[in-house]
Design goal:
By secondary structure, the protein is mainly beta. It has one domain: Electron Transport, Fmn-binding Protein, Chain A (Pnp Oxidase, Chain A, Roll). 14% of the residues lie in helices and 39% in strands. The strands form 3 sheets. The protein has a 7-stranded antiparallel beta sheet with strand order 3-2-6-9-10-5-4. Strands 1-11-12 form a 3-stranded antiparallel beta sheet, with no helix packed on it. A two-stranded antiparallel ribbon has the order 7-8. A hairpin with a 5-residue loop joins strand 2 (17-22) and strand 3. The longest helix has 9 residues, at 55-63. The mean pLDDT is 95.
Length: 190
Amino acid sequence: MKHSLGAKTLLYPHPVLIVCSYDADGNPDAMTAAWGGICSSNPPSVAVSVQKSRKTYENIMATGAFTVCIPPERYVAEADYFGIESGRNTDKIAAAGLTAVGSDLVNAPYIREFPVVLECRMSQSVEIGVHTQFIGEILDVKVDDAVIGESGHPDIGLIKPFLYDSAARTYHATGPEIARAFSAGLTLKK
């Protein structure tokens, strides 16, 4: 039997994404977003939902660009800070002791210390209640050499991203591989 919890924003897991943008004066800003993920494979695209009251909303609407950074576990305090402090009040990236780097492809910064960066040009926006979902075409993915695995691809065990539990309001580490995708289900195929 299942217990009804009503309409809630529960989905397991939520990725912890850092959305970076420039304001009208060229000042870098970063915001934590858990409402996001890949939304198209062709063109490669990511969607992030941002409340209209946020500075990041204004920035993306003005520039038409943003980056999505994947923070590793060791930066959980900084990632959390980006979600509780407003960019209207302070330079959050500098206050967190991190480094803003300008993208060479889009009018947005990214955070040097975070190992994976998606550089995005906004392709569309969708109004959804108090949020706007920004869909960004991924023009490039930049990955630190230190997190490239033996396969030549980013290695989740080296990246060490973390997840958000919206019900408990807690962060969690990722675990070890449990199965190979597009392979584990073959045992059930007839």
